[in-house]
Amino acid sequence: MENKDQQPVYVTRPALPPLEEYLEYLERIWASRVLTNNGPFHQEFEKELADYLGVRYLSLFANGTLALVTALQALGITGEVITTPFSFVATTHSLWWNNIKPVFVDIEPDYFTIDPDRIEAAITPQTTAIMPVHVYGNPCRTDAIEKIATRHGLKVIYDAAHTFGVTVNGGSILNNGDLSILSFHATKTFNTIEGGAIICHDEETKRHIDHLKNFGFEDEVTVVEPGINAKMNELQAAYGLVQLKHINEYIEERKSIAEQYREGLAGVRGIRYLNDIEGIRHSYTYFPILINNEHYGRTRDELYEMLRSHNIYGRRYFYPLISQFPTYRNLPSSDPVKLPVATQAAGQVICLPIYPGLNSTQVDRIVTLIKEGAR
Ligand SMILES: Cc1ncc(COP(=O)(O)O)c(C=O)c1O
User: Fold this and answer.
1) pLDDT (tens digit, 9 = 90+) per residue, 178-219?
2) Which residues in 278-373 belong to E strands, given as ranges?
3) Sign of torsion, CA 134 322 88 73?
4) How many whole angstroms separate alpha carbon 324 and alpha carbon 130?
5) Are strands 312-313 and 280-281 parallel, antiparallel or unpaired?
6) What is the pLDDT of residues 157-171, one digit of tens each?
7) Which pTM value belongs to this model?
8) Which residues form the pocket of ligand 1, taking CB atoms under 6 Å from any ligand atom?
9) Alpha-carbon gap, residue 347 to 339, rounded angstroms
């Protein structure tokens, strides 16, 4: 089998819009010299993005992490928040930056989102909110979460960083909960280099969020609260407007790669992948596979290293669990015994390369390596 003689293939490669289309926007920015502070492209992008996503109110942000931090501020969340350990570390860091104690709850085994059946047992008098993650772009069980939240008077903030354009029976996944946040980081299905957004459901909340992301300014001389600087600039907003013209192609390409992986890996002993869910339009942000070493004959890490030796750089998202990082591992809810499903998933997962431009020969080669790796 060939070794390091091929170009490296990474887990992702940013989708860039056609340069000539972006240059037209840059020329307009150079002419106007409006670089930031809710400029014309920012306003246009907010509108077009809300239309594309099928949501009513959306606030652009400099990145998804600041959107999460600000979402918690906007709702005045304090005390304890119930969340998942199976996510990117920014989910929990946003709580930490707000002086909120994270309480980890295990995930469900099919799609690795927070297990609603375990949420109620974690509620204490200090709990004020739930922060679930639509991890890999697969929707949480939103109805069950909403029922629990209503019963206990809790807010729900969805970390929807992986969930660009995801719809459930035709409606946006982002219409659930009190707020949802998106990330437009370079590695995501939709990118504005860095970027993010908060989705809310009424005008007053949007106004509040818009103040919070701009130092708390309500007008030129009025600062209504201690806000932060989390604004998206005009270069990113313009870039986002161009990206939006191509996003459907990006998602289609990702989808066909996912289909090719599924077809190629079907029936390989010890390898599991996630299928699309009926009624859902997926974002295909990641293509995770789970390796059962007893059936596959190699551990996840052995397969991961073997692929690397062939210049295929998958990523073990989300390993280690957030609850295993030094900041969080001494929390009572971080005990792996209480998080068996998440602990197992973190020990078995590799996210395979998926991005527009990854061609079918490359996907074939990855599938072949995985098949040949079975013992
Ligand atoms: C689940 C999740 N939440 C939050 C973030 C943070 O977003 P950003 O990188 O835009 O700050 C990311 C990704 O980066 C993520 O994967």
Assistant:
1) 999 999 999 999 999 999 999 999 999 999 999 999 999 999
2) 280-281, 287-291, 312-313, 349-352
3) positive
4) 20
5) unpaired
6) 999 999 999 999 999
7) 0.97
8) 63-65, 87-88, 90-91, 133, 159, 161-162, 183, 185, 196
9) 12
